[in-house]
Amino acid sequence: MSEKLPITEVNPINSRYYDYAHFTYPWHFHSQYEIIWVKESTGLCFAGDCIERFGPGTLILFGSNLPHYMQSDDVYKTDNSELRVRGTIIQFEAAFMQHSIQHYPQFRQIKTLLEEARRGIFFSSLSDPDIMGMLDEFPRILGFDQIAGLLLLLQRLSVCAGRDVLASPMYEEVFPTLGNTRIEKIISYINGNYTRDMGLAEIASMAAMNPAAFCRYFKENTGKTYVQYVTDMRIGYACKLLALNSLNISRISSECGFDSLSHFNRLFKQVTNYTPSQYQRYILK
User: How far is CA 90 from CA 81, 279, 281, in A?
Assistant: First the structure.
């Protein structure tokens, strides 16, 4: 789903503390950047085609239009659980300080950070007391101090060691112009269902088009054919599962939505120039 945040050109930053029994917000995306700092909680973070475990001290920077989802561990969802999910959320406009960040050398490191955030950035365990202090304080500051505080926070994160990019190199979203709710609905649906068999007729019906018209419409709005888009999503997810090394290749093929192992092997080699086993040996060495 496409989430609409309470952010405008005159109010480019939204920040708050959160305190839940467990994370509940579904798979979604939005045009703004988002920082989630997990002060207390454990679970799984989904971003693009990536799955990563989070815990206390984790910070995640989601880029503009990157689909993501936070899932608490099952222990948080029991009726008698006294555990809580606590932390800070900071959301800011994609065009925040755009001219300065793009053109002034003083912002070079922040520019790199935000470019990497298109695939999501994961800080597994922040230990810098200054950064943690900023995150603890941020929702309380307003006005100019909030603008300056966000720039300082981004600069500290840009030079912070121990960060990883989440979505795989093969993962690439080409999002439509904001406000095109039809294609947003289609993209959101595909992102949540690409691991199962989705017939062209099924997805075309969502756009109230016949299959031929839908294929033209999808290519015009995303730059990819429907089949290419779904294949890239599946291959990207397969890359992540191969890196986790918890399933055999035949099971990964099935989990990613391929109808046969031979079909999976052929498309994987076509997209990555590696066989799945070659890719796994390379990524794990």
Answer: 27, 36, 38
